Amino acid sequence: MSHLGENVSALVDGELSHMERERALAHLTFCSDCRQEVESMRALKSRLRSLEGPAMPADLTMSLLLMGEPGGPLPPRERPFPKTFGGVPLPGPRSIAPLDNRPSRGSGASSGPGRKRRSTYVAVGVVSAAVALGTLFVTTANQTSGPPPAQVHKTSVP
User: Fold this and answer.
1) What is the distance between the alpha carbons of residues 20 and 93, in angstroms, rounded to a whole number?
2) Which Pfam families does the record associate with it (predicted)?
């Protein structure tokens, strides 16, 4: 029978399943080394429970409480990159792609973000179908099935 090893602390902490616990207790009846180790772990655990928690200094508690109080306004955020490059101003995120400020064609259900999404799905579907058909034609163009087509020769009759 092997010794308990790492199962000693699991036995002391009550983390073993019923079957594992029964095996460990049966092992302890015959193995004095493991029994002594379990007893020392139990004694250590009871000594640790009897210790008082560490006392917190009053100034540490007050400084932590003061950190949670609301303060003044936050400083303005700095731009992580320079605003100019070689004297030329760099475009911002809104200047690259302007907003769509065209007037709407009407207040009907055929306009709005739903129509744009629907047309995007249609476009993606058409492109996918074109790619699939192109792949089909390319892969079947190199394959020949059956005998080559017969060539018709015209002969003139005198």
Assistant:
1) 63
2) zf-HC2
